[in-house]
Design goal:
The protein is of the alpha/beta class and 481 residues long. The chain has helices spanning 2-26, 39-46, 50-62, 132-145, 160-169, 187-199, 214-222, 240-247, 271-284, 341-351, 357-368, 371-397, 423-431, 463-479; strands at 66-69, 73-76, 118-119, 183-185, 205-210, 226-233, 237-238, 252-257, 288-291, 316-321, 333-336, 403-404, 412-416, 435-436, 438-439, 452-456.
């Protein structure tokens, strides 16, 4: 009887703890991203057994209200139910056809460098999230190790230490490559340009995502290429059936997709879709340029695989860099171009001869010492918390019919507003308040994203950010017709 009584008391205490924490979350006393007491501390604080405290946290986790983070503890994870719907998939307004890059929407980023502007439009980390002192230390140590002080030209294919580290890290996304498979570049965009130049000529058509990063349009324009936009689901990525049908009508020479945490939609293609895409393009001998710049910025337990990991015949050209994760100004990138390696090396020789020696050596050293892994674990935790806090603030201040993406990595929230909202007009109104956002029009060649905006959560959440999101919400409510 005493044993049964003790069990009943544990059940009562367990349910009581669950109910109290649940109510504190609903009353906004515990906010998204807040850390909860450890299991041991909760046990001592509430006078309950460790097993009862643990059971309470497991129940709250099953309810979707909190989450366990490895080696860190339990955190609040409350997402408003009214944002359960993701933004809509928008097919092109036009029939499948070749669209001239000259028709693309003009850019609106003339004010992004002003210090007085809160740049919610910039998809990159704020300086306080970067390990500046450790980076400087790696730079100095790499210079000391070099007989020439890193003033000589680097190898044409790139710094050997860096290439070895890139090849080593490929294990995390399912890759089997060596340093001989890697070519370094001045950032990811140069890698994309080299890959496009290797497999296309002016006037060719390239399939890209829609929505997609506006910088891709500039690349296509500079190379005199045409684009064919493939609709993207905010969760699972490109519509492969749409792509296949398009390929039956249009002579597509290459595809350029961000398969992990695309910008701005935030989608991450499941592994079976990646395999399906690689099979389709390999069968048709169409190169895939895979932009994996956000692949390391994941919020789950493991890094997502890449299309390159399913590539057995060398048709996938993977491109990446440390610009979004570690050192934007270092301009250190790379590509793993498969069967097109020689073309890429020749293009690099004609274009830049070699990449900057000091920064490549410093990043190679940063990887080699394990500092990159430590930094990325911290950065992922910080960004995930910021993502949740931004989402919660938008839930509080934006209109009820707002829809928002649920990214599992990256920096971007893709937000669908009321149909009456013109995102460019909202951008102009926000700039008058010194708030920069990215209007949906710049992520496509037509007007299908007129009522969408992208907000990036790379800037650490603060009272200033929260007030700015509140101001945006008021502007949006005032524009609804």
């Amino acid at each position: 009887m005493e044993k049964l009584s003790a069990i009943a008391e544990d059940e009562f205490l367990y349910a009581k703890i669950v109910s109290r924490i649940e109510n504190q979350i609903k009353q906004n006393l515990l906010k998204t991203g807040d850390k909860l007491p450890s299991v041991r501390y909760l046990s001592t604080q509430q006078g309950i057994s460790i097993s009862t405290a643990y059971k309470a946290y497991v129940e709250l986790e099953n309810m979707g209200l909190i989450e366990a983070r490895p080696k860190s503890g339990y955190y609040i994870k409350y997402l408003p139910s009214r944002f359960s719907k993701a933004p809509a998939v928008k097919p092109p307004l036009k029939k499948i056809e070749e669209v001239s890059v000259g028709q693309m929407i003009s850019m609106v980023y003339q004010n992004m460098t002003e210090e007085s502007v809160l740049r919610l439009s910039r998809s990159s980390p704020s300086l306080n999230l970067l390990p500046l002192a450790r980076l400087a230390k790696s730079m100095m140590e790499a210079m000391r190790k070099s007989p020439s002080g890193n003033v000589n030209y680097e190898f044409l294919q790139g710094n050997l230490s860096l290439r070895k580290q890139v090849a080593k890290n490929a294990f995390s996304w399912g890759g089997q490559v060596t340093e001989n498979d890697v070519v370094t570049t001045q950032g990811c965009q140069e890698a994309l340009v080299f890959c496009l130049r290797a497999v296309t000529k002016p006037g060719d058509t390239v399939a890209i995502e829609s929505p997609t990063y506006f910088g891709i349009f500039n690349v296509m324009l500079s190379l005199d290429l045409k684009v064919l936009e493939i609709p993207v689901d905010p969760e699972t990525g490109i519509d492969i059936n749409y792509l296949e049908q398009a390929m039956n009508k249009v002579d597509i020479k290459a595809c350029l997709f961000v398969t992990n945490f695309s910008n701005p939609a935030g989608s991450c293609m499941p592994d079976d879709k990646k395999q399906q895409l690689v099979n389709l393009l390999t069968e048709r001998k169409v190169p895939l340029i895979e932009d994996d710049i956000y692949g390391e910025i994941y919020f789950g337990k493991s890094r997502p695989r890449t299309c390159k990991s399913f590539d057995t015949e060398g048709w996938v050209m993977l491109c990446s860099s440390v610009s979004k994760s570690l050192a934007p100004g270092y301009r250190v990138g790379w590509c793993i171009p498969g069967r097109f390696k020689e073309q890429i090396i020749n293009l690099k020789m004609m274009h830049t001869v070699s990449s900057a020696t000091p920064t490549q050596a410093a990043i190679g050293h940063f990887f080699e010492t394990g500092r990159y892994d430590l930094h990325m674990r911290k950065l992922r935790r910080e960004l995930y918390t910021q993502c949740l806090k931004y989402t919660e603030a938008i839930a509080s201040y934006f209109p009820e019919n707002t829809k928002i993406s649920r990214p599992l990595g990256g920096y971007a929230l893709w937000i669908e507003l009321d149909k009456s909202i013109n995102a460019f007009e909202l951008y102009q109104a926000a700039m008058e308040q010194n708030i920069s956002i990215a209007p949906g029009q710049i992520f496509s060649t037509d007007a299908r994203f007129t009522n969408f905006i992208r907000i990036s959560f790379g800037i650490s959440f603060s009272d200033v950010v929260e007030q700015s999101l509140k101001t945006l919400g008021e502007l949006i409510k005032g524009m609804i017709r």
